[in-house]
Design a protein that fits this description.
Helix content is about 35%, strand content about 20%. The protein is an alpha/beta fold and about 325 residues long.
Length: about 325
């Protein structure tokens, strides 16, 4: 049963099931609350009370009046804080966030408005870089998809017309192989991300989300169909608007940015093309808290809650 939490200007959809210690599951982009169904079932059977949210702007929690600034990190965090307080999710609460959900979860623990026992952050991190970083990235003449997402309307119109391709592209299987490409100076550039049919992956909007290169997906055909139906009668514009506030988010988060004491476990996929764990990121994450653990799962991509359920559950149970 889907419940509705009335907030200032919209209704936040959520489910709550089971009994025991609290687990709150936050999805990312482009997904919805149903991505957690399999994990939810295992958690309930293991004696947890599980709350799942369809986050602000997604089809079941869409704002009636569209204003891109309404999707900044402060508003996203407040949604979750209010939910936790009203539902009294105070029994050893663990927050699990995937992708954008992990960014929201990090803001919630940093703001220290509520008590959280543990954060499990999957394929995300703490904060996005500012738009200047993405503006310097170019892929065969195309900008990074986050740069494209700064123009919400244009990006949304492109995706809305091609929802099937969008979801098939977003959920296609990725693998990593060593590729040696000759450079102008005579050196060889090694290591490229490939789809499982061997086509090169870059991070432009057209390639990541509009270029379905393989028939193999990390989810089955019925789940692809369900995603298309879920978003069919609404626009993808409000979820994209989350990305349009990354500069504002950096400003807002500066007021609560600190070294956190809440135990945090970051989990990454070794071949995640969108969120790649490198040495600099590893150092930054380690320094972000006093009790931080980082795990990278080899040969795993971006959709760990769907492809590596047992690894996610293990960290929740730990």
């Amino acid at each position: 049963m889907i419940n509705k939490l009335q907030l200032d200007d919209f209704e936040l959809s959520y489910t709550i099931e089971g009994e025991g210690s609290d687990v709150l599951l936050l999805h990312g982009f482009p997904s919805n609350m149903y991505m957690w169904n399999d994990i939810k079932k295992d958690l309930i059977e293991s004696g947890y009370r599980v709350t799942i949210v369809e986050q602000r702007g997604y089809p079941l929690s869409r704002l009636k009046i569209f204003d891109a600034k309404s999707f900044n990190i402060e508003e996203l965090s407040k949604d979750i804080e209010v939910l936790i307080k009203r539902l009294k999710l105070d029994n050893k609460l663990t927050i699990v966030g995937h992708d954008w959900g992990s960014i929201v979860a990090w803001a919630v623990i940093s703001r220290e408005k509520i008590n959280i026992n543990k954060l499990v952050s999957i394929c995300g991190g703490t904060e996005f870089p500012t738009s200047k970083i993405y503006n310097n990235l170019n892929y065969h003449g195309k900008p990074h998809y986050i740069t494209s997402f700064q123009n919400v309307e244009t990006s949304a119109n492109l995706i809305n017309k091609n929802l099937e391709t969008f979801f098939r592209s977003a959920y296609r299987e990725i693998s990593e192989v060593n590729v040696f490409a000759p450079q102008k100076d005579g050196t060889l550039m090694q290591k490229a991300y490939l789809s499982n049919d061997g086509e090169s992956i870059n991070l432009s909007l057209e390639n990541v989300f509009m270029n379905f290169l393989t028939r193999k997906s990390v989810i089955n055909e019925s789940k692809i169909t369900d995603l298309i139906k879920h978003f069919y009668d609404s626009s993808i514009d409000q979820p994209i608007a989350w990305y349009a506030n990354i500069d504002l988010n950096a400003e807002l988060s500066s007021t609560w940015r600190k070294v956190v004491t809440t135990p945090v476990h970051f989990i990454f996929g070794g071949v995640d093309a969108a969120v790649k764990l490198n040495d600099n990121m590893r150092k930054r994450l380690i320094s972000s808290g006093t009790n931080v653990k980082i795990t990278e799962i080899p040969e795993a991509g971006h959709w760990l809650p769907l492809t590596h359920k047992e690894s996610v559950l293990r960290e929740i149970y730990d």
